[in-house]
Amino acid sequence: MDYLITVGILGGINIIAAMGLAILTGYTGLFSLGHAAFMAVGGYSSALLFMKLNVPFILAVILGGFIAGIVSLFIGIPTFRSQLTGDYFAIATYGFAEAIRLILNKWAYVGGAEGMPGIPKLSNVWVVLGFTVVLAYLANNFTHSQHGRNCVSIKQDEVAAQMMGVNVFKTKLMSLFISAVYCGIAGGLMGFYFSYLIPALFGSGRSSDMLASIVFGGMESLIGPIITSFLLFAIPQLLYVLDKYRLIVYGLLFVVMMIFRPQGLLGYRQMSVEDFKRTISSFKNRFKKQGSAADKGEQ
User: How many helices (H) and strands (E) does the chain have?
Assistant: First the structure.
């Protein structure tokens, strides 16, 4: 049972990070290969705020996320002013992530390559679930707002969006900031669960895992990446023998997905309360029909 709880907690943390990247990549169309850097910034910042400045746990995690958002401006402002898109933006974020990791490796105040031990284990299943539900609600509201529609318009045709009055620079910067805040919160929760932080936790593999969940789940969708981010983490953990071959499996899944379902698992399906209610109602009706059929059979 403890093992399943661990899988649930770490799966929830992955969901939070994936929701952040979904806003940037799925809705705004900007591919990032370095969002693990924002998890690192959020994780280290929240741990320092709690341990050095005695900031309460929940507030420290939230502030750590906002610090990650502020750090994102250092990569967002120059790249968006230079109008870097596509592969160029992805390479820039990858280089930024490696720079953050190397800084943490050499920074003695946070333990360097040996990391920061002694962080209290405060992230439990209820804390992670609470953050996941609240952040999913906020992300859903954002994607349905005018700001979210601006992000989608930039993804579909940046020139046309600009001609229609969308401030492309500010919209992209806001999207990057929000995605970094989400990843920073995820990193903070991770640190308070593992009870330690090391730079190796936030390598390029973690960024690739987040990006894979977006591609598999579907662009312009939140519910898709939420499902796939949990599955892509949980399945190798439950079937540990696959963990060594994770990248091979990912590569094969990418090929299969691009051939048979290029729009992703749920395509462009949005998250909505109405869909959830309809799903619950369909299950209830199915169970009622099965119960009625069983009663008739007994008679």
Answer: 12, 2
Which contiguous run of DSSP H or E holds residue 260? helix 246-260
- What are the pLDDT digits (tens) for 50-92? 999 999 999 999 999 999 999 999 999 999 998 887 888 999 9
Summarize pLDDT for 140-177 with one digit per residue, the tens: 999 889 999 999 999 888 889 988 889 999 999 999 99
> Token pair for residue 15?
């969901």
CB-count burial class (<10 Å; 0-12, 13-18, 19+) for 298: exposed
What is the C-alpha to C-alpha distance for residues 201 and 39, in angstroms, rounded to an integer?
9
Contacts made by residues 170-175, CB under 8 angstroms, sequence distance 24+: 171/28, 171/147, 172/28, 172/30, 172/76, 172/80, 173/73, 173/76, 173/77, 173/80, 174/147, 175/23, 175/24, 175/27, 175/28, 175/30, 175/151
* Residue carrying the six token digits 């439990």: 124
The CATH fold assigned to 2-268 is ABC transporter involved in vitamin B12 uptake, BtuC (1.10.3470)
Q: How many CB atoms lie within 10 A of CB 100?
A: 22
Q: The whole model's pTM is what?
A: 0.84
- The residue ranges of every structural domain in the chain are 2-268, 273-299
